[in-house]
Write a structure and sequence with these properties.
mainly beta; two-stranded antiparallel ribbon; 8% helix; elongated
């Protein structure tokens, strides 16, 4: 089983971690310096729950957003 929501398909995506130094101009500073970007991953908030799928209880991985929205009925 992959790290993916079985309802909406939300999964792991890649991005950057961007270090910032200095106070922004908005807040009265001289501006920010952006350092070297390093790769990182953004992982979905998944839960393993038992849900009723076509009348039978089945264990699935679901993101908390789908669970909160009521897209699945817990067994």
């Amino acid at each position: 089983m992959s790290r993916k929501c079985e309802i909406c398909g939300k999964g792991t995506i890649a991005g950057h971690s961007v270090p910032r130094k200095g106070l922004p101009k908005k807040k009265g500073g001289a501006g920010q310096h952006i350092g070297v970007k390093s790769k990182r991953t953004f992982k979905p908030n998944l839960l393993k729950i038992k849900a009723l799928i076509s009348g039978t209880p089945k264990s699935i991985k679901i993101c908390t957003r789908c669970l909160k929205a009521g897209k699945v009925v817990k067994a």
